[in-house]
């Protein structure tokens, strides 16, 4: 394509971005409230924090493990069917969790069903559809706007979930949130093309089997995955255990809920800005900067005497850094490996993210039950932040030179 004056997003693209952001607002907003259920569920179901953390770790692992297959299906058949099935399974998982009487029911509902459902209703599927029709110079900006949708949901849904838990109990609150998730199904039609056909992959690029061989043989691919692993560890540990960490220190539960909401609020700005910067500057250098700032934010949080004010300041700063990795990472995948298999390839990178998320959720509960403190996990989080920053710096931001031969 020839260069042109400032590229403007078309009406169709804006409709797709708006629908994607709304879907992610609902799906991620509900998911980000799960940390609020740690205390009421562990007390009512007579389970420990390690068990609760393991359930959400299973959720995150299945979210990532199923994602590449869901992504490949969406690349071939379009996103609408995927989104509608994902919404149905999400609602079923929430309803089943509301009836749980112990760890097994919690594991099947909150763990297995919700985990698999998330792979069909969040960033990878919606960004895969939008990324294929947006000009390269606007792609990370579009991804940033969609990512901000998840944060908008966190800002509005998390406080609402806390209010529902306080007013109606955790079981009834899950039913109410499930009703909200039904809205994902009609919103999915916003990702259809003008004539009603769902968006499909462009023909350029390698077939999926060769694209996978190319990526897996590429050192930059594994460096990108390792950084995303750290992102998953950070956001899941903080999202699940931060509210309880706050109450453990004697602060009111409202501070933890407000902190999660602030993470969402400041990530609206952060996702948009990191996405916009990604269209103008080196994505790998931005990722290295972001991870470094995460490490600094945690260090400052642990050094400053804990109070409601310091907890909320940490939430705001960490929120600005929360999901800025998403538009930058997805943008790098598109830049390095093309658009034909974008949803499948970002799904595989996201699996690395979710392995980190598994460890962040489970290790938090495991360490607390063993030591009575989250301190060790905070220290691990700091070390991982700087490792991720270093891992992103050597990434090559251009397509691999050699195309692997078929076996």
Written account of the structure:
With 407 residues, this protein is mainly α. It has helices at 11-31, 38-44, 49-77, 80-98, 103-121, 123-131, 136-181, 184-187, 208-216, 219-248, 253-278, 283-303, 308-320, 325-337, 342-371, 375-392. Residues 1-7 and 195-203 have low confidence and may be disordered.
End-to-end distance: 34 Å
Q: Percentage of helical residues?
A: over 70%
Unreliable residue stretches: 1-7, 195-203
- Biggest sheet, open or closed, and with what strands and sense? none
Helix count equals 16
Strand content: under 5%
Secondary-structure class: mainly alpha
Short description:
The protein is an all-alpha fold and 407 residues long. The chain is built from 16 helices and no strands.
Task: Furnish the topology, listing elements before pairings.
Blueprint: H1 11-31, H2 38-44, H3 49-77, H4 80-98, H5 103-121, H6 123-131, H7 136-181, H8 184-187, H9 208-216, H10 219-248, H11 253-278, H12 283-303, H13 308-320, H14 325-337, H15 342-371, H16 375-392
């Amino acid at each position: 394509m020839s260069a042109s004056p400032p590229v403007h997003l078309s009406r169709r693209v804006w409709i797709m971005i708006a629908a994607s952001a709304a879907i992610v607002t609902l799906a991620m907003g509900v998911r980000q409230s799960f940390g609020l259920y740690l205390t009421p569920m562990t007390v009512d179901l007579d389970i420990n924090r390690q068990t609760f953390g393991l359930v959400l770790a299973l959720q995150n692992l299945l979210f990532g493990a199923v994602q590449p297959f869901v992504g490949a299906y969406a690349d071939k058949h379009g996103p609408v069917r995927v989104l509608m099935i994902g919404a149905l399974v999400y609602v079923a998982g929430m309803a089943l969790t509301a009836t749980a009487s112990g760890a097994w029911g919690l594991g099947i509902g909150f763990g297995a069903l919700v985990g698999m459902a998330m792979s069909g209703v969040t960033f990878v599927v919606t960004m895969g559809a939008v990324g294929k029709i947006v000009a390269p110079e606007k792609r990370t900006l579009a991804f940033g706007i969609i990512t901000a949708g998840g944060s908008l949901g966190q800002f509005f849904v998390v406080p609402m979930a806390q209010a529902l838990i306080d007013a109606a109990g955790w079981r009834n609150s899950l039913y109410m949130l499930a009703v909200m998730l039904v809205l994902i199904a009609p919103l999915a039609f916003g990702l259809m093309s003008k004539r009603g056909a769902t968006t499909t992959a462009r023909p350029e690029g390698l077939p999926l089997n060769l694209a996978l061989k190319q990526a897996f043989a590429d050192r930059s691919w594994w460096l990108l995955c390792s950084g995303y692993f750290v992102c998953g560890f950070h956001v899941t540990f903080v999202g699940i255990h931060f509210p309880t960490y706050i109450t453990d220190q004697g602060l009111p539960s409202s501070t933890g809920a407000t902190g999660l909401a602030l993470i969402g609020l400041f990530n609206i700005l952060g996702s948009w800005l990191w996405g916009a910067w990604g269209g103008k500057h080196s994505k790998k250098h931005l990722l290295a900067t972001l991870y470094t700032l995460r490490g600094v934010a945690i260090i400052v949080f642990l050094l400053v005497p804990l109070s409601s004010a310091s907890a909320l300041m940490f939430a705001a700063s960490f929120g600005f850094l929360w999901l800025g990795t998403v538009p930058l990472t997805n943008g790098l995948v598109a830049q390095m490996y093309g658009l034909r298999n974008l949803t499948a390839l970002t799904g595989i990178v996201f699996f690395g993210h979710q392995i980190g998320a598994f460890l962040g959720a489970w290790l938090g509960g495991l360490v607390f039950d063993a030591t009575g403190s989250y301190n060790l996990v905070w220290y691990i989080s700091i070390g991982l932040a700087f490792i991720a920053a270093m891992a992103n710096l050597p990434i090559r931001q251009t397509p691999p030179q050699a195309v692997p031969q078929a076996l």
